[in-house]
Amino acid sequence: MPGKAVTRTQTGVRLESSLLKVLKALAEYTDLSLGDLLEGIVLHAFEGKAPFSPETQRVIAQLKSVYGCDLSASDSHKLTED
To answer: How far apart are CA 62 and CA 23, in angstroms?
Structure first.
């Protein structure tokens, strides 16, 4: 069954560097584009659903360690730039 047809827009989003590295690595791990990964995360969040399985969460924890990302949900909306 084919998916829904959508129109996508190129965007220039600024993200914290280590978080972006984790997201790119996770996209590679899940064989998705970064855009597809982000769309999935957002669509799950909009419905109050967890976007990742426990196994994927373990992979995320490993990737965060590899890329030195020590951010958590409690840091959201509180980050400042150097």
So the answer is: 12
3-state secondary structure of 18: helix
Residue 12, in any domain of the structure: no
The CA-atom distances, in angstroms, between 3 and each of 48, 52, 75, 79 are 22, 20, 35, 36
- What is the tens place of the pLDDT at every residue in 7-23? 999 999 999 999 999 99
- The helices-and-strands tally (H runs, E runs) of the chain is 3, 0
If one counts every other C-beta atom within 10 angstroms of the C-beta of residue 31, the result is: 8
Which residue segment(s) compose the domain that 51 sits in? 17-67
How many angstroms separate the CA atoms of 3 and 76, rounded?
32
The domain tally of the chain equals: 1
Which pTM was predicted?
Answer: 0.91
DSSP line for 41-65 = HHHHHHTT---S-HHHHHHHHHHHH
